[in-house]
Amino acid sequence: MGKIRKxxxxxxxxxxxxxMLGSCGLADLLPAPADRDAVSRPETAxxxxxxxxxxxxxxxxxxEQEEMRAVWVSYxxxxxxxxxKSEAEFAASAKELCxxxxxxxxxxxxxxxxxxxxxxxxxxYFPWSKWASGTLGEALRYDPVRILRDxxxxxxxxxxxxxxxxxxxxxxxxxxxxxxxxxxxxxxxxDAREENLMIVDxxxxxxxxxxxxxxxxxxxxxxIQENYRTDGIHIDxxxxxxxxxxxxxxxxxxxxxxxxxxxxxAAWRRENTFAMVKELSAAVHETxxxxxxxxxxxxxxxxxxxxxxxxxxxxxxxxILDYIAPQIYYGFENDAAPFDETARQWDRLxxxxxxxxxAGLAAYxxxxxxxxxxxxxxxxxxxxxxLARQILFARDLPAYGGLILFRYGSLFDPPEETAEAxxxxxxxxxPLLLEEPSQP
Length: 440
Hints:
Elements: H1 5-8, H2 11-24, H3 26-29, H4 47-52, E1 68-73, H5 75-82, H6 87-103, E2 108-114, H7 130-133, H8 144-154, E3 158-163, E4 167-170, H9 182-188, H10 190-196, E5 197-200, E6 203-206, H11 211-228, E7 232-235, H12 250-258, H13 265-287, E8 292-295, H14 301-306, H15 312-318, E9 323-324, H16 339-353, E10 357-361, H17 379-382, H18 386-395, E11 400-406, H19 408-412, H20 416-433
Parallel strand pairs: 1-2, 1-11, 2-3, 3-7, 7-8, 8-9, 10-11
Antiparallel strand pairs: 4-6, 5-6
Helix pairs in contact: 2-20, 6-8, 9-10, 11-13, 15-16, 18-20
């Protein structure tokens, strides 16, 4: 496993990287320092203005915590290590995975244990994932989450369970889900399906308007905490699917209106996602008060609010999050959303709510054309030090609490066409993680 493992697991590589940093003056390559209070308010009225209005003058201090230096370990990373593999084979892969991460200075794994209303562990609430066993609903003979959780502890790495609370399997796959699981029972009952599920483009989603659905999601998170005592629970940016037709949840919305509800459809959906995340957070903290609960929304506040129906400002201000980890997957030269401007915007929101900002960084873009970056389309190809500069920039933000790299395979098993670029980039950014960030 890993085309560039040897390059990052030796002290010699780290020493060479440190020399490279010393000679190239990396700090000098950063954009010129700017007044963090100089980001202007949106000048046009509308959704984003409403989200951000009134926040700029609030400057609460964010509690200091150890820097999170994390990597997302997705189901795509786990599946090749599991399908058709014995317990001993997976245990060896888990050890190697943890060693790889520790070797480059990472201290946290964020592991996708429930991607499609399924699970990578024995669960009372969700069927075994096809990405684990090869067939949806078919159990493994061992518990990979237990193995990886224990190995992470031995290697000194924190372990967070990563969930996709709403996204499910396809309708075509639904007959494979064993009948004892709630999602299958709801699907088979027309009334329960209408109340609890949404079908969008042939994919089954859990409907957060339903109290029973929200309880299932919360119970699932509590189950993980009870069984594995993870260091935290993490969700990303899969909420309502963008472009979803009104008909997908029209029955739930009409029931809400018939009971005297007055919110329009978009506002009602935002209230549903807020209720879901609030209950999820409560379940995590009630099971283990020391566990951290965090959300990784899209980097664009407008997309979060209008397309996914999540009011990130409300979540941050409500006190239900222990950190916010936006996916700031842009280069400095991105025409629509430059990294520096976007990061400062999120820093303001985090400071206003008093939560740490964990910067989500796009390691998967190294060596590739960024098709949506406009004039900055080639930045990830031409700038080998781009991730390193982003780390340094983020560390200088007042609310900074850490970073997360997407994803494990992009760091240690990238596609052949970008493997050399990934290795060169890693030789620059990895030494930054092997050292503690400088204090202001």
